[in-house]
Amino acid sequence: MSKVVVAKDLYLGYKNETIIEKGNFSLKSGDFVFLTGASGSGKTTIIRHLYGELKAKNGYLNIGGFDMSKISHSKLTYLRRYIGIVFQDYKLIKEWTIEKNVKLPLMIAGINEELQQKKASKLLSQVKLAHKADKYPYELSGGEQQRAAVIRAIINEPVLILADEPTGNLDDYSAKLVMELFQFANELGITVLIATHHLPQNFDIQYRHMHIEGKKIYEVS
Amino acid sequence: MKYLKSHLFLIIALISILFSIETFFIFNKIVKTYETKIVQNYTIIVVSKSKLANIKFDNVSKITQIDIKDSLENMKQQLKNFNIEKIKNTLPYFYKLHFNKFPTPSELSKLEKTLLKNPNIKRVESFKVNQNQIYNLLLIIKLVATIFMVIILFISFLLIIKQLEVWRFEHSERMYIMELFGAPFWFKSAMLLKLAIIDSFISIIFIFIFVRYILESKMYQNLLAQLQIKVDINLFYDLGLFFIISLSISLIATFIVILSKKDEVL
């Protein structure tokens, strides 16, 4: 299987602070990975580097064949079309309806409106949000907003989905629904990396577990 | 209502800029038209001992000799023993100087000095005190309109900066989300560009109403009647020009917001 992410001797952090030291890991196509660690251990820092918001202090990070230390703004823009992102605070566009939010990656990709509509309707029905397609984010519960955010991340079938504490604000029922969506995405062959405090209970698919402790990334067997 | 709130500063700034420019244009046209009118009737008189031949001055379109024959004939009828030929030989030559463009007071003084340097020229009468009163008043109004325009441009510039800060705050999150999903520049900018075009249209509509009102007002019509001039203001041409100005300002403001956002995210 091809490698979607390759990190070698990676040093990540901010101006005067190193959060991750000598990080070595890789994600293969179709992997389902949980990244755990205490608060402030560097989970979000890793995610932010993986979608190119931050540049590594040192080391090698390759995503989808792009060397992230040398990537240009235009190539990063292009690469991001193949990465779906999910945040703890959903990051839905508040002036847009749920349906329009879900369609965003398809609009960016220039997919025709008919196909956009078809895909959005299908996925919204699948997560029981079809009746809320015309609502605005503030009219939905946290769980519903997060389901919409996950659909937005998978609608254009990206190569990689990055999720930063996607169930952090949700009750157990909503968290279960959201995790089922990630499972569905993974079944489509999408690589999924979820940063979380705790591993979910009763999760019945095969997954990898990476853990951060003392600025190091460990693979938990 | 929400749209109007977030765009009010830019619309007010645009209207102020366009209104001050239009005010300047109107006064400029009034002064120009008045200049054209008075320059046709305005001449200065030069009295010379010899004939003025092949003499050229800046802004002087032609020099015509005043025929004094009729005046002498009149005098002959009134005075006995009036020897017209003898008088004619002793009289100097009288000339009228016509102008291409109405001379400013300083240009007129300069011309007078130049003329009087000629030893044959005995006198120059420019009638400048009477003739220039209205013109000078118009020049003062034009100057005031120019100062007004500069002040308004400065204040409007400050308003636009304030509006940019509001926009940066309002649109940054949406543009950030779009950027996360790989939206190209035009896609992220589309909404702001659309708003910029709408703001330009709104300001143009307001300006059209304001200017139309002024041009049809009694005050404006009375001013033109008193100056005995007719000023041609092509409002649609001005509006076209203003739309370009207004759109340029809006687009520059929009690009500043977009590009400053780009700097925040890699």
Describe the structure.
The complex is a heterodimer of chains A (221) and B (266). Chain A is 32% helix and 29% strand. By secondary structure, chain A is an alpha/beta fold. Chain A has one domain (3-220): Rossmann fold (3-Layer(aba) Sandwich), CATH 3.40.50.300. Chain A starts with a strand and ends with a strand. In chain A, strand 1 and strand 2 (17-28) form a beta hairpin. Chain B has 2 domains: 2-37 and 133-264, no CATH class; 43-126, Alpha-Beta Plaits (2-Layer Sandwich). Helix content of chain B is 73%, strand content 9%. Chain B has helices at 2-41, 69-78, 84-90, 105-117, 128-180, 185-215, 218-227, 235-264, and strands at residues 43-48, 60-65, 93-99, 121-125. Chain B has a 4-stranded antiparallel beta sheet with strand order 2-3-1-4. The A-B interface holds A 51-55, 73, 76-85, 91-95, 104-105, 107-108, 152 and B 173-174, 177-184, 187, 262, 265-266.
CA-to-CA gap between the ends of chain B? 34 Å
Helical segment count of chain B: 8
Report the total helices of chain A. Answer: 6
Radius of gyration of chain B: 30 Å
The figure for the number of domains of chain B is 2
Order of helices and strands of chain A: EEEHEEHEHHHEHEEE
CATH class division of chain A: Alpha Beta
Major sheet of chain A: order of its strands? 6-7-8-3-9-10
Oligomeric description of these chains: heterodimer
